[in-house]
Amino acid sequence: MTNAILVLNAGSSSLKFAVYPEKDDDKGALLRGQIAGIGTQPTFSARDAAGNSAPQGDFAKMDDAVGSDTVIAMLMEWLNSYLGDVKIKAAGHRVVHGGRQFKGPALVTDALIAQLAELIPLAPIHQEQNLNAIACVAASAPDLMQVVCFDTSFHQTQHPLAKMFALPRDLTEEGVIRYGFHGLSYEYIASVLPKHIEDKANGRVIVAHLGSGASMCALKEGRSAATSMGFTTLDGLVMGRRCGAIDPGVLLYLMQSKGMGATEIENLLYRESGLFGVSGISNDMGVLETSTDPHAREAIDLFCFRAARELTALVTSIGGLDALVFTAGIGENSAMVRAGICAHLEWMGVEIAADENAQNAVRISPQGAKIDVLVIPTDEEAVIARATHALTNC
Ligand code: ADP
Fold it and tell me: The sheet that has 2-10: what strands, in order across it?
């Protein structure tokens, strides 16, 4: 019998999972998959280490109305039967917000869950789903050890100035600061950078995590020096459905002149804005790229322009730029977006080679370029598996 670690990344409408062999995540996952479209039209897909599709089992009969609790219970059963002799000994979860308290991964206890639940208002589209996944796993497998890994932890190394808002001091002391997110992705990229750019990995690097949620992180000596997301996951870049940085005066206007309440504004900022709001078509970059509607083009142009502006602000925090890394769904796959962002950065010496960019090659800057531009697939699940091994000794 072999032991394994289950990694879960529970989002608002999707559940990503991976299974890693015990004590050796360097070999990679035994299995990876996701259930997408939860709450609308759920679909299941999974592949083993060789890239073969795994059978769907009961997921083939999934009802459209199936909720995330049922999906997790089904997944635990499906894994038991699919994995056969491989026994899951521990589960590791991505949790978006660790607040100020959690500087690294932690074992799940009732007290810890209560502390994390207090952070739900700071990550309304993520934290609750993350915690719910832990509860659902515990319901299906009460004896399983569970570990949480936070998107905020990687940014603990930032200088206090990078974290402060210019607000009255008592609010800062209460914890109204920039936390930063996507830390598990940045930790993974920082860990593999030396393989790609050797000594420059210790230099000044910007990583652009461009997925449904999008942010950038300025790395110096492989550590987070600054990031575009802030107190919540709303700040910074234009995202699929989130607006990114906005003049806070707009929020006052919405409240005072349009009579909007907190719930309505939350919905507007988290779910109706970004690529979706600007295009009026979709939050999906792939869809917008193929659309002929001028609003789709404008949404992509705004995404690229705002990303370049955030990047130049972040460069100040690390005193220059040696390498730029694109990652996550859009960063890894969209040649159009990478070219669009880099076109705004030519003045600072960022160049890309059209052919390599079109092929999503690992290195897309031309030979001899001053700034290395790379495309590196992220692997948050590997980081979670490693931390879960370390804390549970599984
Ligand atoms: P998340 O994990 O935050 O849900 P992903 O990292 O999977 O997000 O990124 C999702 C985004 O990546 C979507 O906007 C999707 O359109 C985009 N994407 C994925 N593949 C492509 C592609 N080939 N071309 C353009 N965009 C793509």
Answer: 43-48, 31-36, 15-21, 2-10, 86-95, 145-150, 106-107
Q: Count the neighbouring beta carbons within 10 Å of the beta carbon of residue 129.
A: 21
**HEC per residue, 77-93:** HHHHHHHCCEEEEEEEE
CATH class of 198-375: alpha beta
Give pLDDT tens digits for 217-239.
999 999 999 999 999 999 999 99
pTM above 0.90, yes or no: yes
The yes-or-no answer on residue 143 being catalytic is no
Among 30, 41, 34, which residue's Cα sits nearest to residue 14?
34
Collapsing DSSP states into helix, strand and coil, what is residue 138? helix
CA end-to-end distance (rounded Å), the chain: 13
CA-nearest of 384, 393, 390 to 29 is: 384
274 touches ligand 1 (CB under 6 Å): no
DSSP 8-state symbol, 39: T
Evaluate: CB of 213 within 6 angstroms of ligand 1.
Answer: yes
- Tens of pLDDT, residues 47-97: 999 999 999 999 998 888 888 899 999 999 999 999 999 999 999 999 999
Active-site residue (options: 69, 110, 151, 199): 151
Nearest CA to ligand 1 atom 13: 284
Intervals of CATH 3.30.420.40 along the chain: 2-150, 198-375
Q: What's the CATH class of domain 2-150?
A: alpha beta
Distance 99 CA to ligand 1 centre (A): 27
